[in-house]
Each structure stands twice: as structure tokens, then as C-alpha cells.
Design goal:
single chain, 7 helices, 48% helix
Length: 159
């Protein structure tokens, strides 16, 4: 008897736009909603950020790109405690709130396991996001950082 275990997809690129767009074939829920515009996933999430926040496209791309990098870093390194700043957290939340896309990310990059999000109310002030930036850079990601968000380090499947 042969047992096959699905493992998370290995990333062959460090380009956040390519990583996000690669999720499209893994979206199975509400596909009409997600794909009705004919946009790539990257452009869809940028359009949603621009719809819901006061920012220019360049800023939305930077926020989403760093959000994707953070998500990938947390998926690929589940035992490393990571955190993001307030602006990058907007990008992370954008991905999580577009639930068909989030499930696609979990299917493709997290072996189908749901990645939870359960922040604390109080923001951290221990420079975790700066350490996160250093860690993600050491993993080959291009990122930047600021003040940290209040993420939980006690739940192994939480970011």
C-alpha cells in the first residue's frame, strides 16, 4: 500500500505577484465572484485595497506585496514567531478577507491546512516586526517593516 501525503507547494519564485497569481487554479469557491472581472488575482486584490482604503496604486502594491511575503514566510516557517507592521497587516487582512483566495493560498502553499488569524487587541512594542523583517530577508524575501501587529505566538497554526 502506498500512502501519498500532500506537502505544501515549494515556491520557485520570490515575486509576490507571481505567487498570488499562481493561486487562481486552486480557487474552488465563489469563482464567479473572484473571476468575474477578468483580472488577475493580484490586480483583483489591488482593486479591493483601493476600493476600501485611501491610497494610491503604488502603495497598494507595496502593502499587498509585503502581505504576500509575510504570509509565505509564516507558512514556510511555522515554528518561527513572525509579526507585521500596521501597513503590511492591511495586505495580510486583504488576503484573509477574500476567503476564496485565502483558501486557495492554504490549498496551494499550506498543504490544504487552513492558516488561522487570531490577533491580540494590544499591539506589540517589542520590535518583533523588525526581527521578522530581518528573518524574511535572510530567507531571500525583499521586504520592509514598521510597528508590529498583535499576533498570537502561542497557536501553531496562527499567523
Amino acid at each position: 500500500m502506498t500512502v501519498t501525503v500532500d506537502s505544501p507547494a515549494a515556491t520557485r519564485t520570490r515575486d509576490p505577484e507571481e505567487l498570488l497569481n499562481a493561486v487562481a487554479p486552486h480557487i474552488t469557491e465563489l469563482t464567479l465572484n473572484v473571476f468575474d472581472s477578468g483580472m488577475s488575482l493580484w490586480d483583483r486584490e489591488i482593486a479591493l485595497l483601493l476600493r476600501d482604503h485611501t491610497m494610491v496604486r503604488d502603495m497598494a502594491e507595496r502593502i499587498l506585496g509585503n502581505g504576500v511575503v509575510y504570509v509565505m514566510g509564516s507558512i514556510q516557517n511555522p515554528d518561527v514567531h513572525l509579526g507585521v507592521g500596521k501597513l503590511v497587516d492591511i495586505g495580510v487582512h486583504q488576503l484573509i478577507l477574500d476567503t476564496p483566495v485565502w483558501w486557495g493560498i492554504c490549498r496551494l502553499y499550506n498543504g490544504g491546512r487552513y492558516k488561522h488569524h487570531a490577533p491580540f487587541i494590544q499591539r506589540r512594542s517589542d520590535e518583533l516586526c523588525l526581527r521578522t523583517g530581518d528573518f524574511l530577508k535572510s530567507q531571500g524575501w525583499a521586504i520592509d517593516g514598521a510597528n508590529c501587529s498583535p499576533c498570537d505566538n502561542k497557536v501553531p497554526d496562527s499567523h
